[in-house]
Amino acid sequence: MPESFFILSKDNLEIAIDEVVSIVKTYDRFSKVKILSNLIIIQSKTNWEQITKRATFVKVSGQILRKMSGLFLDGENFEILKNAKTFVCRIINLSSDKINVPELERAMGDMIIKFSKAKVSLKNPDITIYLILTINENFFGFAKRFECEKRPKKIKTHPHELNWKLTRAMINLIGLKEGETVCDPFCGTGTTLLEAESMGIHGIGLDFDQKMYDISKENLDVNGYKSKIIKADFSQLTNIVNEFDGIVTDLPYGIASKSSENPEELIKKFVSILPKGKKIIMMCKKGFEKKLKIKPTKKYEIYRHKSLTRVIIIK
Ligand SMILES: C[S@@+](CC[C@H](N)C(=O)[O-])C[C@H]1O[C@@H](n2cnc3c(N)ncnc32)[C@H](O)[C@@H]1O
């Protein structure tokens, strides 16, 4: 089974790890996962590009060719360069050893040139060859040139909007697949709907505020997205339960975002009408969640500033 590697950004590392694991398991529940701090090694029939396209916090990824105890490489390792015109070498040092990375990258490049006709190109090479050094073992891998998907445009913003990275990660954390439908009952500027559609997931948004409804609509239209938006109170979601597979939402805080009532009371009501059998993830102000009759399967804390720490809860 092919093995791939993912180096994650260290901001929100716990979420970053769980997001990749959730995506991998969504596509292939028999995948094997090994976590070495911010490096994840995965054995799965799912291609690393498919995982990378969805994952929010992956900095570098590719396929593993082999594990090595030392640094020795030979001609056999460079079969992958057969049809490549250009390449670059990258060393990722996650070990505790001090290593002169540029020097080692140059030495590796010089060695490869002896076995291959491909030339070094630092900008946009056909193939990037990786040597990942960790405390116990080293991994030799590669990645073919990889076109990142276009990000959805957002022409209208609002101070209470949730950043796209956390929103995207939340969608992935509950394992929604292409073709399924997500509902955001407090959709605001439409961030959840935009991120979902960019991954091939349909969306339904509700917001009681006409202004937010209009903003969401404009943001979807400019991308040619077809998610449904309903100008309605969140309680209306009980009438559309058969139309979605999961809920991803960021509840009103009562600071910048308008709330139809006291945010704590609103959350209690919201939790009391949550449908059974759906994948549910929500964000709220830290502290609110303690008063809810809900047993989260997972909880993450996100510090924003002195007076606001938020929590993400997976039901
Ligand atoms: C924190 S904001 C959501 C931000 C959104 N995630 C985004 O990225 O733009 C909360 C939203 O809930 C909406 N809202 C407040 N009370 C509501 C209610 N009773 N029913 C539906 N929407 C409500 C507000 O208008 C606001 O747009």
Unreliable spans: none
How many domain units? 2
CATH architecture of the largest domain: 3-Layer(aba) Sandwich
Radius of gyration: 22 Å
Helix-strand makeup class: alpha/beta
General shape: elongated
Distance between the termini: 33 Å
For the secondary structure, the number of strands is 15
Under CATH, the topology of the largest domain is which?
Rossmann fold
> For this structure, what is the CATH class of the largest domain?
Alpha Beta
Main sheet characteristics: 8 strands, mixed
Across the major sheet, the strand order is: 2-3-1-4-8-7-5-6
Average pLDDT value?
92
Bound molecules: S-adenosylmethionine
Order of helices and strands: EHEEHEEHEEEHEHEHEEHEEE
User: What percent strand?
Assistant: 25-35%
Please identify which CATH superfamily of the largest domain we are dealing with. Vaccinia Virus protein VP39
Q: How many H/I helices?
A: 7
Percentage of helical residues?
25-40%
Description of the structure:
This protein is of the alpha/beta class and 315 residues long. It has 2 domains: 3-144, VC0802-like, CATH 3.30.2130.30; 164-314, Rossmann fold, CATH 3.40.50. The chain contains 7 helices and 15 strands. It has helices at residues 13-27, 48-54, 101-115, 164-173, 191-198, 210-223, 263-272; strands at residues 3-8, 32-36, 39-43, 58-68, 86-93, 119-120, 127-133, 138-144, 181-184, 202-207, 228-231, 246-250, 279-285, 298-305, 308-314. It has an 8-stranded mixed β-sheet with strand order 2-3-1-4-8-7-5-6. The two termini are 33 Å apart. The chain binds S-adenosylmethionine. The site of S-adenosylmethionine has 21 residues, from strand 10.
